[in-house]
Amino acid sequence: KPSKASSSVVFENIQGCSLKCLRMLLENISNLSIDDDFTVEVIPEINVAVTRFTKSIDTEEFVKNCSLNKRFKEFKMTARLLELTRSIRVENLPAGVSADFITLYFENARIGGGPVSDIQLFPEENSAIITFCDHRGNA
């Protein structure tokens, strides 16, 4: 697996496939086990699902295999690598949370964090944009 490849894959146009069906389909294509080797999160508002592989696989090859799979094509879904980014948006923050607290929380390596280079707080929205020094810090 190339070191720059994302460990996450985005599936678009998923409305014709239930979550249970999508999970089984992904297990069949990847030969991996849901929960042990990958997770699936559905974002119904934009008709997509995101799979994050916790087991090391060639995600570029997996995306290719999805496009070749008969069942996947029948559902008319598409798959692509999730773009690597250094910034994330965090919502539903407690009122009055400080930039220092957010920095300490997201720099915690035990939860997949890494060095933070910038925090933009939006108190009126109870949100923030966290920018990491490296894209691996936003896991």
UniProtKB/TrEMBL annotation:
Q: InterPro entries this protein is in?
A: Nucleotide-bd_a/b_plait_sf, RRM_PARP14_2
Write down the Pfam families for this protein, in alphabetical order: RRM_PARP14_2, RRM_PARP14_3
**What sequence ranges are listed for the domain PARP14 second RRM?**
5-83
User: What's the name of the protein?
Assistant: PAR14 polymerase
Q: Per its UniProt entry, which superkingdom is the organism in?
A: Eukaryota
Q: Which gene encodes it?
A: Parp14_0
